[in-house]
Amino acid sequence: MTDLSKKGLDLRSSHSVGIVQPQVAVFNEPLALDCGRTLPSYALVYETYGTLNAACDNAILICHALSGDHHAAGYHGETDRKPGWWDSAIGPGKPIDTNRFFVVSLNNLGGCKGSTGPLSLDPATGKPYGPDFPIVTVRDWVQSQHRLMQRLGIAHWAAVIGGSLGGMQVLQWSINYPDALSHAIVIAAAPKLSAQNIAFNEVARQAIITDPDFQGGRYAEQGMLPRRGLMLARMLGHITYLSDDAMRAKFGRELRAGQIQYGFDVEFQVESYLRYQGSSFVDRFDANTYLLMTKALDYFDPAQGFGDDLAAALDSVKASFLVLSFTSDWRFAPERSREIVRALLASGKRVSYAEIESNHGHDAFLVSIPYYHRVLAGYLAQIDGGDPA
Amino acid sequence: MIRPDWHIVEEWITPKSRVLDLGCADGALLDHLIGTRQVTGVGLELQDEQVAACIERGLNVIQEDLDKGISDWFTPESFDFVIVSQTIQAIRHPERLLVDMLQVAREGIVTFPNMGYWRNRVQLGLLGHMPINRALPNPWYNTPNIHLCTLTDFESLCAELDIEILDRAVVDRARRESPLLRALPNWFGEHAIYRIQRRS
Q1: Does A329 qualify as catalytic in the annotation?
Q2: Counting CB atoms within 10 angstroms of each CB, which of A84, A117, A235, B183 has the fewest?
Q3: Over the stretch A332-370, which tens digit does the pLDDT of each residue have?
């Protein structure tokens, strides 16, 4: 079966949100950022699925991960090969059920898919921001998401949900706006990065920055693209998203040409896969955005202002939590999720935790694993609000 | 389904207290206590199927292997009651669990199948095979119940661990009260239910 016929089936399927149209919200009130700088104005691109009910109590916010964007579910057009990045979980009858919930998904500030970011024009110079785009943090994102929430007329989220870096935004939401959400669903996340996590990010950044075509971040002005650097960064990232087992199962030591060639061209299937992932990423992602996103990851540490006591940082939280981790995830291993759960328990919060058996590594949060989706659907089915429109 | 031991557990639980249920299975007991005693509760359970069932009931549950210990998860005295219902016999180190659980809660409630129950004695002592019956349905080679004990055994362990027994009840299949149960609990009690605390 070809991708197209698969897509045709999906589009007709009653479990797809179908064709969706991104929208843009422009904000003219300045946004003061953690780094000390201020964005005078900015735009956020977002999508919505489902219908906001009259009581406005069925809204769910989806926060995206490192390379994610606003396009979480459905298709942009008939010819799209792939649906949004979390189409496995969002749609009619899916765990995040759009028959019941109104789902909002946006591209974060600093992104490269339509929200204000390094590719946008700096009003001060008339040129793309490029490397001059301010460093944004998870807290900044949550603040901008809160403004989008007000713009959409939503007073309260039934739930805020995110995986990986998205899960960190969920945690920040629960701390910064305790009254704004009833439920927080944190998937495959961590309360802060480990030295090893930061190390991987630094290698990725160095790959990009040392690419001669990076041009100090002004590649767009020069009509250049740091292809090699961004590709290497993505290849490295992919290794950390998959588990050893998943790679063994997917590629083993399989050779493309059937026999060893004694050279440096692609020989093993895993090399081919990584090169493909890397080069296709270059065509859809901006290098400066990649740098910004990895920095947001590195800086995230909600316990920082609380003597490194996460439980103290969570003291003001009112939301109930569902925390999920995956056994083969070594980027944000189950132990990192347990840290979050322990802190929530220590500060007397309501929390459920499930550890999902999977060999998909960190990427498991995007995969439709029966137990994972059963827990997610079961939790959401229990929450108040969310009567259909 | 309300099991006969649940009534006793329920009576011992103070309304509106904080309850931790270790090995909470599908959360039915916790759910029952939330309904009848308005407790706030957390369950701990290992099996996927059971964890999912708890979440589908709207309960708070932590997926964890009790054999890995509980002191990592909970701060001391964070609960009023900790329940270990029909679980202690399946734990690798029951003695450690008993000590740990009385750190995280003021009082503990433990229920287990009584190996001293007359049917078990007949099957082992007279018929010469490991008991297989309603309370102990699994064959010896494939059973989660690796640490079976009698009332006497449990009480000696409590003494050894400096644990005070506040209350004891025994039940059989359907009855909660009978002269036989009162007179010879270690013979006629099919299940034992204890309320315990640390000796201060």
Answers
A1: yes
A2: B183
A3: 999 999 999 999 999 999 999 999 999 999 999 999 999
